[in-house]
Amino acid sequence: MLSAMRRSLMLSLIFSTSLAFAQTKSSGGTESSAAQRWQALIASGKVDAADRLCTAWTTSSELNKKVEAQKCLANVALFKGSHLALNGNEVGGGTLGEGYSNEAVNTALVHLNEGLRLAPQDVSIHQGRLHILEVAGRYDEMDKALEQSINTYKGPGTPDLWLSYAAELANYGQPTAGLHLSEVILKHYPDNPDVVGNLGAFYNMLHQPENGLPYLRRAVELDPDDAIDTWNLGWALVRLDQFDEADKWMARSLDLKSDPQDLRERKCLYGQFLVTKRKNAAKGCPLVRTACEADDQSVCKEDATTPALH
Question: For 267-289, how does the pLDDT look when each residue is reduced to its tens digit (9 = 90+)?
Answer without folding.
Answer: 999 999 999 999 999 999 999 99
